[in-house]
Amino acid sequence: MSLHEQRREELVEMIEGAFVYFTMNLCASDIQDSTRYSMRRALKRPHQNEEEFNTDPFEEGENGDWDFEDNEQQQSSSGGDSDSSNHVDNELSRNPPELLGTTSKRLLTFRLRALAQIYELLVENRHATKRDLFYESKKIYEQQSNFDRALTAVCNFLMASRSELHVISCSKGFAIGSLKLLNAMDDNEIDFRSGTIALNESLINFDFADSDANAILILEKDSVFQHLLDEKFMEMFPKTILITGRGYPDICTRQFLYWLASQLPNIPMFILTDADPYGVEIFLTYKYGSDRSWIESGGITLPQLKWIGFLPSEANNLPVPENQLLKLTNSDKRRIEKLSTKVLSLGENSVFDELAIMLSNNCKLEIEALYTLGDKFLSSVYLKYKMENQ
Protein backbone atom coordinates (compact mmCIF):
# COMPACT_ATOMS: atom_id res chain seq x y z
CA MET A 1 0.00 0.00 0.00
CA SER A 2 1.36 3.43 -0.97
CA LEU A 3 1.92 6.18 1.59
CA HIS A 4 -0.91 8.12 -0.06
CA GLU A 5 -3.33 5.22 0.45
CA GLN A 6 -2.19 4.75 4.04
CA ARG A 7 -2.83 8.42 4.76
CA ARG A 8 -6.26 8.26 3.11
CA GLU A 9 -7.28 5.27 5.23
CA GLU A 10 -5.93 6.95 8.35
CA LEU A 11 -8.04 10.06 7.70
CA VAL A 12 -11.14 7.95 7.04
CA GLU A 13 -10.66 6.19 10.38
CA MET A 14 -10.14 9.51 12.17
CA ILE A 15 -13.37 10.96 10.79
CA GLU A 16 -15.31 7.79 11.62
CA GLY A 17 -13.98 7.89 15.16
CA ALA A 18 -14.93 11.54 15.51
CA PHE A 19 -18.50 10.92 14.37
CA VAL A 20 -18.85 7.91 16.68
CA TYR A 21 -17.66 9.91 19.68
CA PHE A 22 -19.86 12.88 18.83
CA THR A 23 -22.92 10.64 18.40
CA MET A 24 -22.25 8.97 21.75
CA ASN A 25 -22.28 12.41 23.37
CA LEU A 26 -25.62 13.19 21.75
CA CYS A 27 -27.03 9.92 23.08
CA ALA A 28 -25.85 10.51 26.65
CA SER A 29 -28.76 10.17 29.06
CA ASP A 30 -27.60 13.01 31.34
CA ILE A 31 -26.42 15.97 29.27
CA GLN A 32 -25.16 17.91 32.28
CA ASP A 33 -22.94 15.05 33.46
CA SER A 34 -21.69 14.02 30.03
CA THR A 35 -18.18 14.74 28.87
CA ARG A 36 -17.45 17.94 27.00
CA TYR A 37 -18.00 17.88 23.28
CA SER A 38 -14.37 17.37 22.34
CA MET A 39 -14.08 15.75 18.93
CA ARG A 40 -10.30 16.07 19.09
CA ARG A 41 -10.39 13.59 21.96
CA ALA A 42 -12.28 11.24 19.67
CA LEU A 43 -9.22 11.15 17.46
CA LYS A 44 -7.09 10.09 20.43
CA ARG A 45 -9.41 7.14 21.11
CA PRO A 46 -11.80 6.61 18.18
CA HIS A 47 -13.08 3.23 19.44
CA GLN A 48 -13.95 4.24 23.01
CA ASN A 49 -16.82 2.05 24.25
CA GLU A 50 -19.94 3.15 26.07
CA GLU A 51 -18.68 2.13 29.52
CA GLU A 52 -15.63 4.35 29.13
CA PHE A 53 -17.70 7.25 27.84
CA ASN A 54 -18.99 8.56 31.18
CA THR A 55 -15.57 8.39 32.88
CA ASP A 56 -14.09 11.07 30.60
CA PRO A 57 -10.56 9.58 30.61
CA PHE A 58 -9.07 12.22 28.40
CA GLU A 59 -6.77 14.90 29.67
CA GLU A 60 -7.98 18.47 29.71
CA GLY A 61 -5.74 20.96 27.98
CA GLU A 62 -5.60 23.75 25.47
CA ASN A 63 -6.29 21.28 22.66
CA GLY A 64 -8.90 19.36 24.62
CA ASP A 65 -11.80 21.32 23.21
CA TRP A 66 -13.21 21.07 19.75
CA ASP A 67 -10.30 23.03 18.35
CA PHE A 68 -11.99 24.17 15.18
CA GLU A 69 -10.55 27.68 15.38
CA ASP A 70 -10.84 29.99 12.39
CA ASN A 71 -7.67 32.00 11.88
CA GLU A 72 -8.08 35.70 12.71
CA GLN A 73 -6.69 36.83 9.37
CA GLN A 74 -9.03 34.59 7.44
CA GLN A 75 -11.97 35.90 9.45
CA SER A 76 -11.01 39.50 8.84
CA SER A 77 -10.35 38.94 5.13
CA SER A 78 -13.85 37.59 4.69
CA GLY A 79 -15.57 40.20 6.80
CA GLY A 80 -15.86 38.12 9.97
CA ASP A 81 -15.25 39.34 13.50
CA SER A 82 -12.47 37.57 15.41
CA ASP A 83 -13.99 38.23 18.86
CA SER A 84 -17.29 36.78 17.68
CA SER A 85 -15.49 33.78 16.22
CA ASN A 86 -13.64 33.13 19.47
CA HIS A 87 -16.92 33.35 21.37
CA VAL A 88 -18.50 30.83 19.01
CA ASP A 89 -15.55 28.43 19.31
CA ASN A 90 -15.71 28.64 23.11
CA GLU A 91 -19.44 27.98 23.05
CA LEU A 92 -18.97 24.99 20.75
CA SER A 93 -16.40 23.59 23.17
CA ARG A 94 -18.39 24.01 26.35
CA ASN A 95 -22.04 23.40 25.49
CA PRO A 96 -24.08 20.52 24.07
CA PRO A 97 -25.93 21.29 20.80
CA GLU A 98 -29.23 21.83 22.65
CA LEU A 99 -27.73 24.78 24.55
CA LEU A 100 -25.89 26.48 21.70
CA GLY A 101 -26.86 29.88 20.38
CA THR A 102 -28.17 30.31 16.83
CA THR A 103 -24.81 31.41 15.40
CA SER A 104 -22.97 28.53 17.03
CA LYS A 105 -25.52 26.02 15.78
CA ARG A 106 -25.05 27.28 12.23
CA LEU A 107 -21.28 27.09 12.54
CA LEU A 108 -21.53 23.58 13.96
CA THR A 109 -23.76 22.59 11.03
CA PHE A 110 -21.29 23.98 8.48
CA ARG A 111 -18.38 22.12 10.03
CA LEU A 112 -20.15 18.79 10.39
CA ARG A 113 -21.43 18.97 6.83
CA ALA A 114 -17.94 19.78 5.52
CA LEU A 115 -16.52 16.89 7.53
CA ALA A 116 -19.14 14.56 6.02
CA GLN A 117 -18.33 15.75 2.50
CA ILE A 118 -14.61 15.16 3.06
CA TYR A 119 -15.43 11.68 4.37
CA GLU A 120 -17.32 10.89 1.16
CA LEU A 121 -14.41 12.06 -1.00
CA LEU A 122 -11.92 9.92 0.90
CA VAL A 123 -14.08 6.79 1.02
CA GLU A 124 -14.92 7.03 -2.69
CA ASN A 125 -11.32 8.04 -3.50
CA ARG A 126 -12.39 10.95 -5.67
CA HIS A 127 -11.49 14.64 -5.81
CA ALA A 128 -13.60 17.80 -5.91
CA THR A 129 -13.05 21.54 -5.99
CA LYS A 130 -14.14 23.87 -3.21
CA ARG A 131 -16.75 25.25 -5.57
CA ASP A 132 -18.13 21.76 -6.25
CA LEU A 133 -18.50 21.04 -2.55
CA PHE A 134 -20.15 24.39 -1.88
CA TYR A 135 -22.78 23.91 -4.62
CA GLU A 136 -23.37 20.34 -3.47
CA SER A 137 -24.79 21.78 -0.23
CA LYS A 138 -25.51 25.36 -1.20
CA LYS A 139 -28.78 25.42 0.77
CA ILE A 140 -26.81 24.63 3.93
CA TYR A 141 -23.79 26.90 3.44
CA GLU A 142 -25.66 29.76 1.69
CA GLN A 143 -22.34 31.53 0.98
CA GLN A 144 -18.99 30.26 -0.33
CA SER A 145 -17.21 31.95 2.58
CA ASN A 146 -19.12 29.79 5.08
CA PHE A 147 -17.86 26.64 3.40
CA ASP A 148 -14.31 28.02 3.06
CA ARG A 149 -14.09 28.68 6.80
CA ALA A 150 -15.60 25.28 7.59
CA LEU A 151 -13.01 23.60 5.35
CA THR A 152 -10.18 25.44 7.10
CA ALA A 153 -11.58 24.25 10.42
CA VAL A 154 -11.69 20.64 9.18
CA CYS A 155 -8.09 20.89 7.93
CA ASN A 156 -6.96 22.16 11.33
CA PHE A 157 -9.04 19.55 13.14
CA LEU A 158 -7.60 16.62 11.14
CA MET A 159 -4.12 18.17 10.91
CA ALA A 160 -4.27 17.61 7.16
CA SER A 161 -3.74 19.73 4.06
CA ARG A 162 -6.53 20.29 1.55
CA SER A 163 -4.80 18.07 -1.00
CA GLU A 164 -4.70 15.23 1.55
CA LEU A 165 -8.46 15.64 1.96
CA HIS A 166 -8.91 15.39 -1.85
CA VAL A 167 -10.06 19.01 -2.18
CA ILE A 168 -8.49 20.59 -5.24
CA SER A 169 -8.23 24.21 -6.31
CA CYS A 170 -8.90 25.92 -9.60
CA SER A 171 -5.56 27.66 -9.69
CA LYS A 172 -5.12 31.16 -10.97
CA GLY A 173 -1.39 30.64 -11.56
CA PHE A 174 0.42 30.30 -14.90
CA ALA A 175 3.87 29.10 -15.95
CA ILE A 176 6.04 28.93 -19.05
CA GLY A 177 9.62 27.90 -19.68
CA SER A 178 12.14 25.11 -19.62
CA LEU A 179 10.12 22.28 -18.10
CA LYS A 180 8.51 19.06 -19.28
CA LEU A 181 6.19 16.77 -17.31
CA LEU A 182 5.01 13.25 -18.14
CA ASN A 183 2.01 11.23 -16.99
CA ALA A 184 3.34 7.68 -16.68
CA MET A 185 -0.20 6.24 -16.72
CA ASP A 186 -1.09 7.37 -20.24
CA ASP A 187 2.17 8.86 -21.58
CA ASN A 188 0.52 12.27 -21.78
CA GLU A 189 3.14 15.03 -21.87
CA ILE A 190 3.05 18.69 -20.87
CA ASP A 191 5.77 20.87 -22.35
CA PHE A 192 5.95 24.32 -20.73
CA ARG A 193 8.23 25.46 -23.56
CA SER A 194 5.31 25.35 -25.99
CA GLY A 195 3.30 28.07 -24.25
CA THR A 196 1.64 29.24 -21.06
CA ILE A 197 0.27 26.41 -18.87
CA ALA A 198 -2.38 26.84 -16.15
CA LEU A 199 -1.19 25.45 -12.81
CA ASN A 200 -4.14 23.27 -11.84
CA GLU A 201 -3.96 20.39 -9.39
CA SER A 202 -4.21 17.75 -12.12
CA LEU A 203 -0.46 18.29 -12.46
CA ILE A 204 0.02 16.18 -9.32
CA ASN A 205 -0.58 13.14 -11.55
CA PHE A 206 2.45 14.03 -13.66
CA ASP A 207 6.10 13.18 -13.06
CA PHE A 208 9.11 15.38 -13.66
CA ALA A 209 10.50 14.52 -17.12
CA ASP A 210 13.06 17.09 -18.19
CA SER A 211 14.40 20.61 -17.59
CA ASP A 212 17.58 22.50 -18.36
CA ALA A 213 16.42 25.55 -16.40
CA ASN A 214 19.02 27.63 -14.58
CA ALA A 215 16.56 29.95 -12.79
CA ILE A 216 12.95 30.24 -11.64
CA LEU A 217 11.39 33.71 -11.66
CA ILE A 218 8.09 34.39 -9.87
CA LEU A 219 6.10 37.48 -10.83
CA GLU A 220 3.50 39.07 -8.59
CA LYS A 221 1.31 40.27 -11.44
CA ASP A 222 -0.22 38.67 -14.48
CA SER A 223 0.12 41.98 -16.35
CA VAL A 224 3.90 41.91 -15.82
CA PHE A 225 3.99 38.24 -16.86
CA GLN A 226 2.27 39.15 -20.13
CA HIS A 227 4.50 42.21 -20.58
CA LEU A 228 7.65 40.08 -20.33
CA LEU A 229 6.28 37.63 -22.87
CA ASP A 230 5.57 40.57 -25.21
CA GLU A 231 9.17 41.70 -24.71
CA LYS A 232 10.32 38.21 -25.82
CA PHE A 233 11.73 37.49 -22.38
CA MET A 234 11.75 33.73 -23.02
CA GLU A 235 13.91 34.23 -26.11
CA MET A 236 16.41 36.23 -24.06
CA PHE A 237 16.31 33.77 -21.14
CA PRO A 238 15.31 30.38 -22.63
CA LYS A 239 16.53 28.47 -19.57
CA THR A 240 14.23 30.28 -17.17
CA ILE A 241 10.90 29.06 -15.79
CA LEU A 242 8.55 32.04 -15.50
CA ILE A 243 5.63 31.80 -13.06
CA THR A 244 2.91 34.15 -11.83
CA GLY A 245 0.41 33.65 -9.02
CA ARG A 246 -1.54 36.67 -10.30
CA GLY A 247 -1.54 38.54 -7.02
CA TYR A 248 -1.77 36.89 -3.62
CA PRO A 249 -0.79 33.28 -4.43
CA ASP A 250 -3.25 30.43 -4.03
CA ILE A 251 -2.31 27.09 -2.51
CA CYS A 252 -2.16 25.35 -5.89
CA THR A 253 0.48 27.73 -7.28
CA ARG A 254 2.52 27.47 -4.10
CA GLN A 255 2.27 23.68 -4.11
CA PHE A 256 3.54 23.58 -7.68
CA LEU A 257 6.51 25.81 -6.79
CA TYR A 258 7.25 23.72 -3.71
CA TRP A 259 7.26 20.56 -5.83
CA LEU A 260 9.33 22.25 -8.55
CA ALA A 261 11.93 23.35 -5.98
CA SER A 262 12.22 19.74 -4.81
CA GLN A 263 12.87 18.60 -8.40
CA LEU A 264 15.36 21.40 -9.15
CA PRO A 265 17.00 22.02 -5.76
CA ASN A 266 20.19 23.56 -7.10
CA ILE A 267 18.86 26.40 -9.23
CA PRO A 268 18.08 29.88 -7.84
CA MET A 269 14.52 31.07 -7.32
CA PHE A 270 13.67 34.78 -7.53
CA ILE A 271 10.56 36.91 -7.09
CA LEU A 272 9.66 40.32 -8.56
CA THR A 273 6.92 42.31 -6.81
CA ASP A 274 5.72 45.89 -6.47
CA ALA A 275 7.71 48.07 -4.08
CA ASP A 276 4.82 48.31 -1.64
CA PRO A 277 3.64 46.55 1.54
CA TYR A 278 1.53 44.07 -0.41
CA GLY A 279 4.52 43.11 -2.54
CA VAL A 280 6.51 42.34 0.60
CA GLU A 281 3.59 40.39 2.03
CA ILE A 282 3.34 38.30 -1.15
CA PHE A 283 7.08 37.57 -1.05
CA LEU A 284 6.79 36.41 2.57
CA THR A 285 3.79 34.22 1.72
CA TYR A 286 5.73 32.41 -0.99
CA LYS A 287 8.80 32.01 1.18
CA TYR A 288 7.35 31.23 4.60
CA GLY A 289 3.79 30.11 3.89
CA SER A 290 0.39 31.63 4.57
CA ASP A 291 -0.70 33.07 7.90
CA ARG A 292 -4.24 32.00 7.13
CA SER A 293 -3.75 28.30 7.73
CA TRP A 294 -0.36 26.63 7.88
CA ILE A 295 -2.01 23.23 8.25
CA GLU A 296 -4.49 23.75 5.42
CA SER A 297 -1.71 24.50 2.95
CA GLY A 298 0.52 21.69 4.17
CA GLY A 299 3.39 23.85 5.41
CA ILE A 300 4.45 24.87 1.89
CA THR A 301 7.57 27.06 2.07
CA LEU A 302 10.34 28.19 -0.29
CA PRO A 303 13.31 29.00 1.97
CA GLN A 304 15.64 29.58 -0.99
CA LEU A 305 13.45 32.33 -2.51
CA LYS A 306 15.12 35.73 -3.02
CA TRP A 307 13.33 39.06 -3.41
CA ILE A 308 15.21 40.82 -6.22
CA GLY A 309 12.88 43.75 -6.83
CA PHE A 310 11.27 46.13 -7.23
CA LEU A 311 13.09 47.45 -4.15
CA PRO A 312 12.10 50.72 -2.45
CA SER A 313 15.80 51.63 -2.19
CA GLU A 314 16.00 51.71 -5.99
CA ALA A 315 13.58 54.61 -6.23
CA ASN A 316 16.43 57.04 -5.56
CA ASN A 317 18.83 55.35 -7.99
CA LEU A 318 16.61 55.00 -11.05
CA PRO A 319 15.23 57.96 -13.05
CA VAL A 320 11.62 57.01 -12.40
CA PRO A 321 9.20 59.88 -13.23
CA GLU A 322 7.70 61.60 -10.19
CA ASN A 323 4.18 60.73 -11.27
CA GLN A 324 5.08 57.06 -10.68
CA LEU A 325 5.82 57.69 -6.98
CA LEU A 326 2.66 56.87 -5.06
CA LYS A 327 2.14 58.20 -1.54
CA LEU A 328 1.62 55.71 1.26
CA THR A 329 -1.84 55.59 2.77
CA ASN A 330 -2.45 55.28 6.51
CA SER A 331 -3.37 51.66 5.88
CA ASP A 332 -0.02 51.14 4.11
CA LYS A 333 1.84 52.60 7.07
CA ARG A 334 0.07 50.34 9.55
CA ARG A 335 0.83 47.35 7.35
CA ILE A 336 4.50 48.34 7.14
CA GLU A 337 4.74 48.51 10.93
CA LYS A 338 3.21 45.06 11.24
CA LEU A 339 5.44 43.62 8.52
CA SER A 340 8.54 45.18 10.07
CA THR A 341 7.97 43.24 13.28
CA LYS A 342 7.38 40.06 11.32
CA VAL A 343 10.47 40.25 9.09
CA LEU A 344 12.71 40.98 12.08
CA SER A 345 11.43 37.84 13.79
CA LEU A 346 12.21 35.91 10.60
CA GLY A 347 15.72 37.31 10.35
CA GLU A 348 14.96 39.15 7.09
CA ASN A 349 17.09 42.18 7.95
CA SER A 350 17.46 43.42 4.37
CA VAL A 351 13.67 43.37 3.95
CA PHE A 352 13.33 45.30 7.22
CA ASP A 353 15.69 47.94 5.79
CA GLU A 354 13.63 48.19 2.60
CA LEU A 355 10.44 48.68 4.62
CA ALA A 356 12.17 51.42 6.62
CA ILE A 357 13.17 53.17 3.38
CA MET A 358 9.62 52.87 2.07
CA LEU A 359 8.28 54.47 5.24
CA SER A 360 10.96 57.17 5.26
CA ASN A 361 10.33 58.10 1.61
CA ASN A 362 6.57 57.94 2.22
CA CYS A 363 6.09 56.39 -1.21
CA LYS A 364 5.55 53.10 -2.99
CA LEU A 365 6.08 52.06 -6.60
CA GLU A 366 4.61 49.52 -8.97
CA ILE A 367 6.72 47.35 -11.28
CA GLU A 368 5.09 49.13 -14.22
CA ALA A 369 7.11 52.25 -13.31
CA LEU A 370 10.11 50.52 -14.90
CA TYR A 371 8.34 50.49 -18.27
CA THR A 372 8.90 54.24 -18.46
CA LEU A 373 12.68 53.79 -18.53
CA GLY A 374 12.86 52.46 -22.06
CA ASP A 375 11.80 49.73 -24.45
CA LYS A 376 12.54 46.29 -22.97
CA PHE A 377 14.27 47.92 -19.99
CA LEU A 378 12.60 45.51 -17.57
CA SER A 379 13.81 42.41 -19.45
CA SER A 380 17.11 43.32 -21.05
CA VAL A 381 18.49 45.65 -18.37
CA TYR A 382 16.81 45.35 -14.96
CA LEU A 383 16.09 41.61 -14.76
CA LYS A 384 19.22 40.66 -16.68
CA TYR A 385 21.38 42.49 -14.16
CA LYS A 386 19.43 41.20 -11.17
CA MET A 387 19.43 37.55 -12.19
CA GLU A 388 23.09 37.51 -13.18
CA ASN A 389 24.34 39.22 -10.02
CA GLN A 390 22.65 37.29 -7.23
UniProtKB/TrEMBL annotation:
Protein name per UniProt = DNA topoisomerase (ATP-hydrolyzing)
Name the active site residues: Y135 (o-(5'-phospho-dna)-tyrosine intermediate)
Q: Which UniProt keywords apply?
A: DNA-binding, Isomerase, Magnesium, Metal-binding, Nucleus, Topoisomerase
User: Catalyzes what?
Assistant: ATP-dependent breakage, passage and rejoining of double-stranded DNA
GO BP terms in the entry = meiotic DNA double-strand break formation; meiotic DNA double-strand break processing; reciprocal meiotic recombination
Q: Where is the composition biased (Low complexity)?
A: 73-83
Family affiliation: Belongs to the TOP6A family.
Domain Topoisomerase 6 subunit A/Spo11 TOPRIM per the UniProt entry, residue ranges: 216-387
Q: Where is the Spo11/DNA topoisomerase VI subunit A N-terminal domain?
A: 111-167
